[in-house]
Structure formats: structure tokens, C-alpha cells
């Protein structure tokens, strides 16, 4: 099978060493780094999510697959940033996965793609407390706060953060993303925008920063 199919299978199997070896070869032979995200990581994790949902996979398998996927993302980030090399400084984005939620692969991808487009990203990590986000936002360096959440149980935390930021009249825009949320939800909580994927997030940021 093709290296792409091979790598997808390896992530689904949770074979981090295997997938990293094939991905390194793929890149050294001139393969497109972002193809590893779009054609390998995204479909593989979708499959893993399906297997987990229907009870064929349990938490340990979910974790192994996530670690393999994150390894590929790290490799892609190194490749993208070393090729680009241009630090255009187009603006600063504060990124966080909200409190209660430890899913950060999507947030990391969005951060990486923003960086590769010349934005500075201050990444606060995952399971980030409201206070921590506010504290950073008050410093005033970032023009945009980007919030990520993947679970129906944590999306309401986005509302808390957004309302708090808006309540303090901080001159910072709030954008949201993640599997559980939508444009409707963004409108509902008073966020300034929603993006379904990393490239749309770049377009949204470009639009908001005018
Ligand atoms: Co979990 N998990 N997980 N998980 N996990 C989901 C989300 C779930 C849908 C699986 C399922 O049941 N089908 C389900 C949530 C159900 C719900 O909402 N009610 C779930 C669950 C239940 C759980 C646990 C509770 C399981 C348990 O403990 N019993 C637990 C939660 C722990 C916690 O957070 N407190 C848990 C744990 C984990 C792992 C740690 C094992 C691992 C995460 C590892 C990590 O992130 N470092 C994991 C994984 C890997 C998944 C699935 C399989 C894949 C998620 C992922 O990384 N997708 C997921 C199933 C699925 O989504 N099909 C699932 C790939 C990623 C690139 O996509 O994050 O959507 P995504 O990001 C996209 C876009 O959404 C967008 O751009 C990204 C790139 O395209 N985007 C933004 C994201 N953020 C953005 C921000 C923006 C703009 C765009 O602007 C700011």
C-alpha cells in the first residue's frame, strides 16, 4: 500500500515508532508536510474515534493512537517552520484548550498553521483555567484569543471565558473551534468567529485583523 495508507494504519494501530519512521522518509523524499496532517492524521483519528465510539477500542488504544498522531504533528511542525523561516509578525494569537478538556491535537495543528502563516502564537496548553486565560489576555499582547474544546461537556467553558473577556471590555477578539462547536454556538456565546479547521482559522484571523 502507499506510504499514506501505511501511516494511517500505523496511527490507528498506535504504532508511534513505525509511523514516525515512514513519515521521516516521506518528508526526506520531498513529501508535502501538510499532507501528513490532512491525508494521514485527520482521517486516522476519525477512524480511531469511530472504533472508540462503537466499543472496539478502549482508552489505552485511544491514547496510543493519539501519541502516534501527535508525534507526526511535531515532525510536521519542525518541517513547516524550518522551510518557511519567515517571521513576518502579522499579529499575536493566544491559544488554549479550555478547562476540563485535555484534547489538544487540533489546537496544536491550528497553532502550527497560524505560525507557518507568520503569526506569533502564545500557546497556553490544554485544560487551561479561565483565570490563566484572562491573566494572559489582560497583558494586551494578543489581538485574538483562540479557544478549543472537543467535548459537549466542555464547550460551555468557552461561553464562560468569552463572556468574561467581553465583560471586562478587553480589546481582544475571541474565536472558537473544535469538533463539538459551530458557527451557531459562536454566535450564541458572543464570540467573534468560528473556524471548522486550521486553514479556515487562518482566514478568519486574517479577516478579523483586517
Ligand atoms: Co477523546 N473524545 N476523550 N481523547 N477523543 C473524543 C473527542 C470523542 C468525540 C470520542 C468519541 O466518543 N467518539 C469523545 C467526546 C464525546 C463528547 O463530546 N461527549 C471523547 C471522550 C469521551 C474522551 C474521554 C472523556 C474518554 C474517557 O476518559 N473515558 C477523555 C476526555 C478527557 C478530558 O478531556 N478531560 C478523552 C481522552 C482522549 C485522549 C487523551 C486519549 C486523546 C486526546 C489526546 C490529545 O489531544 N493530546 C483523545 C482523542 C485522540 C480523541 C479523538 C479520537 C480524536 C480527537 C482529535 O485529536 N481529532 C476524538 C474522536 C473524534 O474527534 N472523532 C475523541 C483530530 C483533531 C485534529 O481534530 O481536535 O477536531 P480536532 O481539531 C480540528 C478542528 O476541530 C479545528 O481544527 C482542527 C484541525 O482540523 N479546531 C479549531 C480545533 N480547535 C480549534 C480552534 C480554533 C479553530 C479551529 O480556533 C481557536
UniProtKB/TrEMBL annotation:
Residues 1-88 form the B12-binding N-terminal domain. Residues 90-210 form the B12-binding domain. Catalyzes the transfer of a methyl group from methyl-cobalamin to homocysteine, yielding enzyme-bound cob(I)alamin and methionine. Subsequently, remethylates the cofactor using methyltetrahydrofolate. Belongs to the methylamine corrinoid protein family. This is Methionine synthase. It comes from Acetomicrobium thermoterrenum DSM 13490.
Amino acid at each position: 500500500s502507499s506510504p499514506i495508507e501505511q501511516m494511517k494504519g500505523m496511527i490507528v494501530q498506535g504504532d508511534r515508532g513505525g509511523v514516525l519512521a515512514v513519515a521521516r522518509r516521506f518528508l526526506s523524499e520531498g513529501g508535502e508536510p501538510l499532507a501528513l496532517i490532512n491525508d494521514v492524521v485527520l482521517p486516522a483519528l476519525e477512524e480511531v474515534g469511530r472504533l472508540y465510539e462503537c466499543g472496539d477500542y478502549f482508552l489505552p488504544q485511544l491514547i496510543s493512537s493519539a501519541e502516534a498522531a501527535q508525534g507526526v504533528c511535531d515532525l510536521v511542525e519542525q518541517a513547516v517552520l524550518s522551510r518557511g523561516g519567515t517571521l513576518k509578525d502579522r499579529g499575536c494569537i493566544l491559544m488554549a484548550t479550555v478547562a476540563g478538556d485535555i484534547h489538544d491535537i487540533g489546537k496544536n495543528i491550528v497553532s502550527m498553521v497560524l505560525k507557518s502563516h507568520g503569526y506569533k502564537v502564545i500557546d497556553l496548553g490544554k485544560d487551561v483555567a479561565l483565570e490563566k486565560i484572562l491573566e494572559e489576555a489582560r497583558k494586551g499582547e494578543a489581538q485574538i484569543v483562540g479557544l478549543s474544546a472537543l467535548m459537549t461537556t466542555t464547550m460551555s467553558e468557552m461561553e464562560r471565558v468569552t463572556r468574561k473577556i467581553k465583560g471586562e471590555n478587553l480589546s481582544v477578539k475571541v474565536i472558537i473551534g473544535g469538533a463539538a462547536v459551530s458557527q451557531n454556538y459562536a454566535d450564541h456565546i458572543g464570540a467573534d468567529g468560528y473556524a471548522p479547521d486550521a486553514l479556515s482559522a487562518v482566514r478568519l484571523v486574517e479577516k478579523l485583523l483586517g
